[in-house]
Amino acid sequence: NDVAGSRRGSGDIGFDRRMFMTTADANRRVTDVYDLGRGMLGEGSFGTVYKAREKHSGTIRAIKAIQKSRIKKPGRFQEEIDLMKTLDHPNIIRLYEHFEDSQYVYCVLQLCTGGELLDKICSEEVFTESSASVIMRQIFVALHYMHFRGIMHRDLKPENFLFLTPEPDRKSVV
């Protein structure tokens, strides 16, 4: 089993909190900072995404809850979290912070309400070359930003490109 920790008698997988969290984050819980009662946005093979409100400022964010038992390479996962926190580009989704409890890692992300690129392509009767060129330019600019920093996106596919808003002149994010 590639998952960090050791098997316990009950069949649970044990995790060392220090595996994912920095010392400063270790004493905070996601529910101390965010109200998760805003509804589920989607589900994927890795986790569930919820709409949440930051309690102090009222800012709306997306929170992806990832089951630790599905994380096969915790070291690589931590590297990806640390890397994503350093990215600051208008076409790359922001990872603001992360939390964890005994079963989940919670990634606090920029909220994207415009849907997936794949859904937009399938739902629009006419997808013009002009629209496609605007979207492709945003994708290429984001990829250039990442590649310039020595970062490679390992899962490029239309469902991994999101739109910030549902408006026609929408901005896409990787």
Q: What's the total number of strands?
A: 8
Could you give the distance between the termini? 30 Å
User: Helical percent range?
Assistant: 25-40%
Average pLDDT across residues? 84
Q: What's the main sheet like?
A: 6 strands, antiparallel
How would you explain this protein's 3D organization?
It contains four helices and eight strands; from the N terminus they run αββββαββααββ. It has helices spanning 30-33, 74-86, 117-123, 129-148; strands at 34-35, 40-43, 47-54, 60-67, 95-100, 104-109, 162-163, 172-173. The strands form two sheets. Strands 1, 2, 3, 4, 5 and 6 form a six-stranded antiparallel β-sheet that branches. The chain is globular. The relative contact order is 0.14. Mean pLDDT is 84; it is low at 1-18.
Jot down its keywords:
174 residues, alpha+beta, six-stranded antiparallel sheet, two-stranded antiparallel sheet, 4 helices, 8 strands, 22% strand, globular, disordered N terminus
Brief summary:
The protein is α+β, with helices and mostly antiparallel strands and about 170 residues long. It has helices at about 30-35, 75-85, 115-125, 130-150; strands spanning about 35, 40-45, 45-55, 60-65, 95-100, 105-110, 160-165, 170-174.
